[in-house]
Design a protein that fits this description.
Layout (H helix, E strand, L loop, with lengths): L1 H14 L13 H4 L2 E19 L3 H15 L5 H22 L2 E12 L4 E6 L9 E7 L4 E5 L18
Antiparallel strand pairs: 1-2, 1-4, 2-3, 4-5
Amino acid sequence: MKKVLILVLAVAITACSRQATLDPNAMTYDESQSIVSVERGVIIAVEQSQVTIDGRDDAGVAGAIVGGLAGSQVGQGGGRDAAVAIGALGASYLGKKLTEKTELAFVYTVEQKEGGIITVAQTGNMINIGEPVLIRTFANGRKSITADQSQNRIYNRTKETQYAD
């Protein structure tokens, strides 16, 4: 039974290794393939804030499994059942709480070129008020911004490219 507990613990730790982040340059492979739009905007306000990122649900599930297994090693009969339940609930809460984190981030208010105002919280180098930005929107609804280094030039190389017949 100890070998099973060690194996489950190893799986739980591996499952919890991926953290959510406010880093605009960090994205999952799935996110990198699911950018649904990029548009221009301008920073109209910026402030620093502590942003708390919720703990991971899978860490809570892994914690529940490990806690339940640990509880099953205690007592007998109804006492063992109670130990399993308490272990599962306690470790589930602990797993989720341990993966919660707080990051110092910049909260940007961005006026979109096509209209509307949005806020985006992210870490990294501060982008100054008045700076043009590109706003990436992902399929899951997450948005990130980056400095627009195109100086508002629009590139349309398709018209200039010569194609072989």
